[in-house]
């Protein structure tokens, strides 16, 4: 099955030929002609990411003019070849490429759908570190997800809402666009004076000159491309450091400020509470971007600084901050494991409610379990939603959280909390799979949990027992 394929030791990679898709090469074996694969082999998003190299750092230089909606980018990626490479790909959708250099030398390139195919002047050796410079520009077009929602660079009435899950990063920079390949980032973003450009991590400088403001941001810990943002608008900015020493930067659209204030005021309390439960906060900055983007319809856990399309409630902030551990620090290996992000962030909401004077997580579970067998909640298995169009649906979020409640009652509170903490610590800044999580749960508890996970993760339909 697709599941076995991605969880196997050799992650199958897709090799794309001009004739179409052929599967077969493994992560280590180079295609005979030295081409890096066009995708990471993800069953839901086969062309996301690329083969043959891993990235270490992205340095993104961006200039955006909200009046013309034009974006200009100069980008430098440092990477390392994992095979001999006569050519390799980056993911880029739309925009016009002006030039590509590899190790400072002009390289040939072509565009094939979302693949920017690069042929360096000299093949890269396996193990070789290399640098890619891409210069590009144009009016970015957001990407339409399989479920019809927009992601990527989404224009607003005063700038852009920039959220890339699962595929949208490629609408604004060239990337190895799969969570398997995480890297550090720096951003230099220039916008007309009066606008604010907010990215991930720490603001290292802000300068206004000649009617333009340049913001520099630095994200030192590894980040998946989909979690990068460069959201632009006319924002009120709030900065402070929490009592536990985390610098907070909030950028808020004034039209949302009054409604957002109560939830934003809880950020330090949420960071402390979640650090107590999941282990120390993985990043060196926190905050929120509250935009006014009525057509978007979702929030995203952009690393360090979640992005909201409108004023969030406390539950939503609890959810997005929980993703900093589950999704951002511990990232997916395959998109079909998305419950490891969404089920966990949803469970954080249930636990917050339980510990802040609301109903217990068990009561929340019971309320959902009461849903009829025909409910969409039971439509497909939590740990294999079947296709990219289903990854943000209730069997992933709600049934995923129900699975964690089942685990909690099976192993007891102490082991349950140990499992969550050990998961977050053991895969910190890396990736995880459902199989690794279920194995950890059995190891910590000393129990055979095959039946529980089989029913709750891998079977569609309403389970016979609550
Ligand atoms: N991960 C986000 C959240 O639940 C949801 C993103 C939805 N994205 C989308 N393109 N529909 O916090
Ligand atoms: Zn979520």
Task: Characterise this structure.
The chain has ten helices and 24 strands. With 466 residues, it is of the alpha+beta class. Helix 7 (394-411) packs across helix 8 and helix 8 crosses helix 9 (434-445). It starts with a helix and ends in an 8-residue tail after the last helix. Bound molecules: arginine and zinc ion. Arginine is lined by residues 145, 149, 151, 165, 298-301, 319-320, 342, 392. Zinc ion (ZN) is lined by residues 319, 323, 342, 345. This is Aminopeptidase N. Residues 56-227 form the Aminopeptidase N-like N-terminal domain. Belongs to the peptidase M1 family. Keywords: Hydrolase, Metal-binding, Metalloprotease, Protease, Zinc.
SSE layout:
Blueprint (H helix, E strand, L loop, with lengths): L1 H6 L4 E6 L2 E7 L26 E13 L4 E12 L6 E4 L4 E7 L2 E2 L1 E5 L2 E5 L9 E10 L4 E2 L5 E7 L2 E5 L19 E10 L3 E3 L3 E8 L2 E12 L7 E3 L2 E6 L5 E6 L4 H8 L2 H12 L7 E5 L16 E2 L5 H9 L8 E2 L6 H17 L5 H9 L24 H18 L1 H14 L4 E2 L1 H12 L4 H9 L8
Helix pairs in contact: 3-4, 4-5, 5-7, 6-7, 7-8, 7-10, 8-9
The structure holds arginine and zinc ion (ZN).
The site of arginine has 12 residues, from helix 4.
């Amino acid at each position: 099955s697709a599941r076995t394929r991605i969880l196997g030791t050799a992650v199958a990679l897709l090799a794309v030929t001009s004739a179409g898709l052929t599967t077969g090469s493994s992560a280590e074996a180079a295609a005979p002609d030295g081409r890096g694969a066009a995708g990471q082999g993800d069953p839901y998003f086969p062309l996301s990411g690329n083969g043959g190299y891993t990235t270490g750092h992205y340095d993104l230089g961006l200039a955006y003019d909200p009046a013309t909606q034009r974006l200009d980018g100069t980008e430098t990626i440092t990477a390392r070849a994992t095979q001999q490479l006569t050519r390799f790909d980056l993911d880029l959708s739309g925009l016009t490429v002006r030039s590509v250099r590899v190790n400072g030398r002009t390289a040939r390139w072509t565009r094939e759908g979302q693949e920017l195919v690069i042929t360096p002047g000299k093949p890269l050796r396996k193990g070789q570190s290399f640098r890619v410079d891409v210069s590009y520009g144009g009016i970015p077009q957001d990407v339409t997800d399989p479920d019809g929602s927009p992601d990527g660079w989404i224009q607003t009435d005063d700038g852009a809402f920039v959220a890339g899950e699962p595929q949208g990063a490629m609408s604004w920079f060239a990337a190895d666009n799969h969570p398997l390949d995480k890297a550090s980032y720096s951003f230099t973003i220039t916008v007309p004076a009066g606008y604010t450009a907010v990215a991930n991590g720490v603001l290292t400088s802000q300068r206004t000159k000649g009617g333009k403001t340049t913001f520099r941001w630095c994200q030192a810990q590894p980040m998946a491309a989909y979690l990068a943002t460069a959201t632009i608008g006319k924002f009120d900015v709030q900065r402070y450091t929490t009592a536990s020493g985390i610098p907070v930067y909030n950028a808020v659209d004034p039209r949302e400020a009054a409604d957002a204030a109560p939830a934003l005021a809880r950020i330090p309390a949420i960071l402390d509470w979640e650090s107590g439960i999941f282990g120390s906060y993985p990043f060196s900055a926190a905050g929120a971007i509250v935009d006014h983007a009525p057509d978007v319809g979702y929030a995203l856990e952009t690393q360090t600084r979640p992005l909201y399309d409108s004023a969030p409630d406390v539950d939503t902030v609890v959810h997005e901050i929980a993703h900093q551990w589950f999704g951002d620090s511990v990232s997916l290996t395959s998109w079909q494991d998305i419950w490891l992000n969404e089920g966990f962030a949803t469970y954080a909401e249930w636990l917050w409610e339980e510990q802040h004077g609301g109903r217990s997580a068990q009561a929340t579970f019971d309320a959902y379990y009461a849903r009829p067998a025909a409910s969409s909640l039971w439509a497909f298995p939590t740990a294999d939603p079947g296709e990219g169009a289903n990854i943000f649906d209730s069997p992933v979020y709600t049934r995923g959280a129900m699975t964690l409640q089942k685990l909690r009652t099976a192993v007891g509170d102490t082991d349950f909390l140990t499992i969550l903490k050990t998961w977050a610590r053991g895969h910190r800044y890396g990736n995880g799979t459902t199989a690794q999580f279920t194995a950890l749960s059995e190891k910590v508890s000393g129990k055979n949990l095959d039946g529980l996970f089989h029913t709750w993760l891998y079977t569609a339909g309403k389970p016979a027992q609550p």
